Amino acid sequence: MDLFQLGGYGLSSRLILGTGKFSSTRAMIDAVRSSGTQLVTVALRRFNRDQAEDDLFGPLSEIKGLTLMPNTSGAATAKEAVRAAHISRELSGSLFVKVEIHPNPLHLMPDPIETYEASRVLASEGFLVMPYIPADPVLAKRLEDVGCASVMPLGSAIGSGQGLSTAGMVSIIIRESGIPVIIDAGLRSPSEACAAMEMGCDAVLVNSAVAVARDPAAMAGAFARAVDAGRQARIAGIMPKSGTAVATSPLTSFLGTP
Amino acid sequence: MRNALPAWLTDEQLSSDIVPMLDQGDAVSLEQLAAEAQAATLRRFGRVMSLYAPLYLSNFCSSGCVYCGFASDRKTSRRRLESNEIEKELAAMRSLGIGDVLLLTGERTGAAGFSYLCRAVDAAAKIMPRVSVEAFPMTVAEYRALAECGCTGITIYQETYDPENYRELHRWGPKKDFLERLEIPERALQGGIRSVGIGALLGLSEPVAEALALARHVRHLCQTYWKAGISVSFPRIRPQEGGYQPAWPVDDRFLARMIFAFRVGMPDVDLVLSTREKPAFRDGMAGLGITRMSIASRTTVGGYHSPDGAGATQFEVSDNRNAEEFCHALRSKEIEPVFKNWDPAFNGPILQEEVACR
Lengths: 258, 358
Hints:
The complex is a heterodimer.
Chain A: E1 4-6, E2 9-11, E3 15-18, H1 25-35, E4 39-43, H2 57-61, E5 67-71, H3 78-92, E6 96-99, H4 112-124, E7 128-133, H5 137-145, E8 152-153, H6 167-176, E9 182-184, H7 190-199, E10 203-206, H8 208-211, H9 216-236
Helix pairs in contact in A: 1-9, 3-4, 5-6, 7-9
Chain B: H1 27-45, E1 48-56, H2 83-95, E2 100-104, H3 114-127, E3 130-134, H4 140-149, E4 151-155, H5 163-169, H6 178-190, E5 195-199, H7 207-224, E6 229-233, H8 252-265, E7 270-273, H9 279-285, E8 292-294, H10 323-332, E9 336-338
Parallel strand pairs in B: 1-2, 1-8, 1-9, 2-3, 3-4, 4-5, 5-6, 6-7, 7-8
Helix pairs in contact in B: 1-8, 2-3, 3-4
């Protein structure tokens, strides 16, 4: 069976879901179930032990077979992210942490310097670190070197729906990486998720595209099938593109037959 | 050059994209603009609304703002909440589910000065996930200390970006200096406050010019302080003790247009609408650009723990729905009310020049 090996876990789904931006906790839970995902990310900001209605952690923790990956969204520095990871582990019991550090709260682009530092510290403490990063092949290798469980390069800006605009850089990361590569952020439609999997990504993380769909549960299902199709195609071996036409009078006929 | 306006305030390049969106001539385009604002909101913020509530700590004031119910010449009785009262009010707010509080005072006075405010922030940060402040201008060092107590945001309105009107409307007190007021959000950011909320009190000056100056202010702050969170509020003059009538009343259509224009022009910025506005307008604007709303607000000093006898209001609120009613209205629009969208793990000053923290 083609299991997704991640930090010692074998997951049957290669779709990871984000849990923010949904119109209700109910809609989010329905999407999670419909997607068949086994790994979801939840912002520590949205852990609310006092208020049942908008708490995301409680309802998610009741779904059997689902692993939670707290994220540090809100952190602007490595120090804050490390603190958030410690608190999240206490609250959730999960060793996974998605390191998400965006010092600019407007465009939410990840800070490579702070992300590297937080990931290094957390990996050394035994966390399964999943850093959200710019699509930078050098940074990806540096994070692998310090013991991250995966790297999560962005496809495009969070919530932009601009798809896999970093495809060129991501393909270098895939080629060189010894740890799973997961596209995080920017995907708008299932076809883009499928394309990411065909390229050789190990998984994709989607949030906005599902949360803001008219029918989030149906869209989550569509993404799951697209991710699966892309993975199957990758394994089956995609026909290479032919770069040039073959001349009717061969260019190398003068070399004679071997 | 102390008396010269800063270059950004008159830099038309900073607001040129907003200009056509504020043109009220074309009735059809309002609908089109609403659709664009809705799409931008959905993409960036999803189907959620962050909620907060104000807590007036004190109505002592040393300023003479013509339009304010707490101006120092009003006959209003003055009081401040004492520590035990603050705790009771916060507990009452918490029991309503509120996890994001805006603490307010008037202009700095002996009764409600910096140390009083710091104690209140400290108390609030112990039980509220997020604490922000709308009070008097402070020094960079004071803002830094406030951030260390757990304050993550400062709201400070310029009130009007028209220097002439500003001078007439602010009759005395420390708030009288237009240029100094203009610097305060920057001082807060320099002190490590993570997010500043700015706005113009709509009704005081010609509204298109106010909107453009406000847009320039946002962009100036974004360009200068790249880590700054920015939110923009759209307060309209409400009836208040003192009876000031707005010289430039702003109608619903223009206010909606202004909010749409800001959302389209600044897709990442939080846009705030308070209970100054009527339920129908608030419900209508939810999902069309606004991403942050106040809820169950009291504009008296205190008023959550013991609503009766809380005294005079700073202004009258228009949306008197309780938390449950308001959340029901949001949910019926398929928008999730979010009471906690922050975590104290991220509290503390953030230095604008800070590099990797080891």
